[in-house]
Amino acid sequence: MPLPSTLKIRRARPDDVHHLMAMAAQPSVRAGMLLMPYPEPSCWADWPGRSGATDLVLVAEVDGRAVGHASLSPEEASPARRHVRSLALGLLDDYQGQGIGAALLAALVDYCDRWLNVGRLELTAFSANEAALALYRRFGFEVERRMHGDAFRAGGWPDSLTMARFNPAWQWPKAPASSFEPASPLPLQGELTLRRATLADAAALAAMFDDLGTVSGTTQMPYANLPLWQQRLSQPAEGRLMLVAELGGVVVGCAGLHPDSHGEARQHVRNIGITVTPGAQGRGIGRRLLAELVDYADNWANIGRLMLTVYTDNAAAIHLYRSLGFEMEGTHRRYAFRNGQWKDVHAMARLSPRFSRELDQDHK
Ligand SMILES: CC(C)(COP(=O)(O)OP(=O)(O)OC[C@H]1O[C@@H](n2cnc3c(N)ncnc32)[C@H](O)[C@@H]1OP(=O)(O)O)[C@@H](O)C(=O)NCCC(=O)NCCS
After folding, report:
1. Per the database entry, which stretches of residues form a coiled coil (predicted)?
2. 51, 55, 71, 124: which sits with the fewest CB atoms below 10 Å from its CB?
3. How far apart are the first and last CA of the chain?
4. What is the C-alpha to C-alpha distance for residues 349 and 344, in angstroms, rounded to an integer?
5. Comparing C-alpha atoms, which of 8, 104, 26 is closest to residue 63?
6. From ligand 1's centre to the CA of 315, what distance in Å?
7. Cα–Cα distance, 348 to 321 (Å, whole number)
């Protein structure tokens, strides 16, 4: 079918909000995205004003009516992922199958390649959404990961796929990684205790990240950032748990469960972060911290799905995660910039036994 002759692709405007709401209420859009029914209009309030430096929301207009949108967002706050954007696409049911989605995607990809100079473009789609997957493949997106029980949609648990596409103009230069001295074991003895982190731990946690041995396992940046830790610890988020490990009264590790930003469709999900200070690694502290989070998630908070990303060269962490029931879901290529190089990460997840049984029932 030819493209509608009056098709116009333009930046979203404040008066598009009611069109976007109408779009979100369409059965296919509702099923294909992570929005809940009856979304709060304020979730679009900032869209038209988003700055072209980081985000962009485009609207497809036909006969003066907004019939589709495509949005681009920075994936995370970390500077290690500054080369990444994620995208989402949605069209009114009556305007699907006419090439409008492809026109929106072409405009967004062109904007990323030629203007923003984005290296890695990523998205998540449900595995049953064949029309969307075919469209993304046409634009060079490849599947990197399959997620089970990632989001609850329309009464069930469809699998989701993560896809990525790389800017063909990028050469991905590689600098030699700077080497650093492995830390000497800390002369600490005494009892290992775990407790919830408080604001008073900010300085100790920031100091832990003042070491390249720690930073290299994460998407954090070098040089301790005390205000960032103070901010994190003074604004407890709903559903977040942050533990610290103390050995002989000294903070030597931390681990946290962090809720997903997509709210209700993923309220059963937590992301995991864990770090043990280099001088105290290899003494079972990481295992204690992670086992405690898993117990809390399984038996108290009833969290169905725990997920994390880990650099593919972080053998100790991968071993630890596997031994506590985490499984590989896929590999994200050139996911983060670390020490002069773009590095791949494995995506791993662990489903609680209770949630696994529910998923099995659902897929029967
Ligand atoms: C990953 C990390 C949290 C583990 O904490 P830790 O206290 O050193 O871990 P533990 O001592 O509890 O256990 C480490 C396990 O890895 C194993 N291990 C250590 N080095 C290994 C290697 N090179 N290859 C495979 N396994 C290795 C240990 O034998 C141990 O397994 P075991 O209990 O079956 O014997 C810690 O190394 C760390 O903080 N690293 C820097 C930050 C980081 O990478 N965080 C993870 C981000 S995803």
Report:
1. none
2. 51
3. 38
4. 17
5. 8
6. 7
7. 8
Looking from the CA of residue 283, the nearest atom of ligand 1 is 11
Beta carbon of 314 within 6 Å of any ligand 1 atom: yes
What is the atom index within ligand 1 of the atom nearest the CA of 309?
48
In this prediction, residues 208-234 reach a mean pLDDT of 91
Burial zone of 147 (CB within 10 Å; 0-12 exposed, 13-18 middle, 19+ buried): buried
Residue of 186, 246, 287 with the most ligand 1 atoms within 8 Å of its CB, for mutation:
287
Which residue from 272, 274, 320, 331 has its CB within 8 A of the most atoms of ligand 1, so it is best to mutate?
Answer: 320
Residue 119 CA to residue 342 CA, distance in Å, equals 10
Q: Which domains does the chain have, with CATH numbers?
A: 8-166 (3.40.630.30), 192-363 (3.40.630.30)
List the residue whose alpha carbon is closest to atom 12 of ligand 1.
284
Total-model pTM = 0.93
Q: Are 341 and 178 in contact (CB under 8 A)?
A: no
Nearest to 55 by CA among 39, 37, 75, 26: 75
Mean pLDDT of 322-335: 98
- pLDDT tens per residue, range 6-46: 999 999 888 888 787 888 788 777 777 777 777 777 766 66
Amino acid at 192: L
Tell me if 348 CB under 6 Å of ligand 1.
no
pLDDT digits (tens, 9 = 90+) for 238-290: 899 999 999 999 999 999 999 987 778 899 999 999 999 999 999 999 999 99
Specify the DSSP element, H or E, that contains 305: strand 305-311
CB 350, CB 182: distance < 8 Å: no
